[in-house]
Design a protein that fits this description.
CATH superfamily: MFS general substrate transporter like domains
Helix content: over 70%
Domain Major facilitator superfamily (MFS) profile: 7-385
Pfam families: MFS_1
Number of strands: 0
Radius of gyration: 19 Å
Keywords: Membrane, Transmembrane, Transmembrane helix
Low-confidence stretches: 184-192, 385-389
Organism: Leeia speluncae
Distance between the termini: 28 Å
Protein name: MFS transporter
């Protein structure tokens, strides 16, 4: 295990710095827009723009990475991302911020495609669940640390945006200094580099429909958390310091189950582990939606977060178990694109539910998403017939 971690150490450090900034970024934006007097629906629309940009970036990532290579693609997108972040410090306007979030989402999709394709190229199917869980654990731990920046949002301070920009800039160093080449495809490599397009998405759906629907569900869960949890807490009358502490604790909860779930999925069926996770998560969120300021509520929310943040890792590992190495970059981009669709839909539906139903509308929708993923595992788990080679 140690030699595997060394092989991806630069990626892990770069990703940790990236996530330290990105983990708090959405919360800062949600808090600032809410403090400016805009409704949850406006917050949801602005945050959904991020995932629309994420979708565009995932679609374009194959072409960009094929042309520039992994390291130069990372450097170029990190530079654009830093510029966009600083734009938020100019003034608060939902339309302007929506455009910035669109641009930021596109950059992040390409950065994550570089990171995740590099991770998946470095491991075998028997190691993928554990390595990917370790990757997500470091990411969520970094996000937890980054949540402390939320306290700088008092009095509409620009400080969080400056600090987030510094973290994004520093994430360049490990990737650029090590200069570790991405693993070659060997004899599996086709004459032409595979590019993400409608045909490749169709083939992915034909071969692995569960991976597609699972990624959409994971996008709904993660996108709603990052975009709307701070708004949920605001509606529950949490103060800014309390929100920062809660979000920090939430990110610790997010990595708590990554390693055990990843290890279990390496030894047992990933689909069966996914079913257990979403069944428990759906049941918990259904209970939470009926609670009103119960002393148990916060603890149950943390347990739900621990479960929900393992869904994406399980789905991505499952998809990568069924593809050859030369498709890693294309499939990583495809999964991120599909994930972003859920990230667009989730905050919009959740924010609409919260506008009409109040704060508990958040968990009504999340419970429905969890049980939908559970149903999908039974509908499509036996239909993976088409080869991705």
């Amino acid at each position: 295990m140690t030699h595997l971690i060394k092989a991806v150490l630069a990626i892990l450090i770069s990703n940790a710095l990236l996530m330290m900034g990105n983990g708090v970024f959405a919360s800062v934006i949600s808090v600032d827009i809410t403090q400016a007097g805009f409704s949850p629906a406006v917050v949801g629309a602005v945050q959904a723009a991020y995932y629309l940009g994420f979708l565009i970036g995932a679609w374009a990532s194959g072409v960009i990475i094929a042309r520039l290579g992994h390291e130069r693609s990372y450097a170029a997108m990190a530079a654009v991302l830093c510029t966009a972040v600083l734009g938020h410090a100019l003034y608060i306007n939902p339309t302007f911020w929506g455009v910035l979030r669109l641009l930021e989402g596109a950059c992040m999709a390409i950065l994550f495609t570089v990171i995740e394709s590099g991770m998946n190229l470095a491991v075998t199917n028997q190691q993928r669940g554990r390595i990917f869980s370790f990757y997500l654990t470091t990411a969520y731990l970094a996000s937890s640390v980054g949540q402390g920046l939320l306290q700088f949002s008092k009095n509409s301070s620009d400080t969080p945006y400056l600090l987030i920009t510094c973290l994004f800039s520093l994430s360049l160093l490990p990737m650029m200094i090590t200069g570790r080449p991405v693993k070659s495809y060997g004899d599996q490599a086709p004459k032409e580099k595979p590019i993400l397009n409608l045909d490749s998405l169709k083939k992915l759906y034909q071969a692995l429909p569960l991976a597609v629907w699972g990624a959409i569900g994971a996008g709904c869960l993660n996108g709603s958390f990052y975009s709307m949890m701070a708004v949920y807490l605001k509606q529950r009358h949490y103060q800014l310091d309390e929100i920062a502490h809660f979000m920090g604790g939430a990110m610790i909860a997010a990595f708590a189950l990554q390693w055990p779930v990843g290890k279990l999925s390496d030894h047992f069926s990933r689909i069966r582990i996914l079913r257990v996770v979403v069944l428990l998560g759906g049941t918990l969120t259904a209970i939470i939606s009926f609670l009103s300021q119960s002393i148990w509520q916060e603890g149950l929310i943390f347990i739900y977060i621990s479960l929900s943040f393992t869904v994406y890792g399980l789905v991505v590992s499952y998809a990568n178990d069924h593809i050859p190495d030369y498709l890693r970059t294309t499939i990583s981009a495809a999964m991120l694109l599909i994930f972003s669709i859920g990230g667009i839909v989730g905050p919009i539906i959740v924010s609409t539910a919260m506008t009409h139903m109040g704060a508990h509308g958040y968990f009504v929708i999340i419970s429905a998403v969890m049980f939908s993923i559970l149903g999908i595992t039974y509908c499509w788990a036996q239909k993976q017939k088409v080869s991705m080679h």
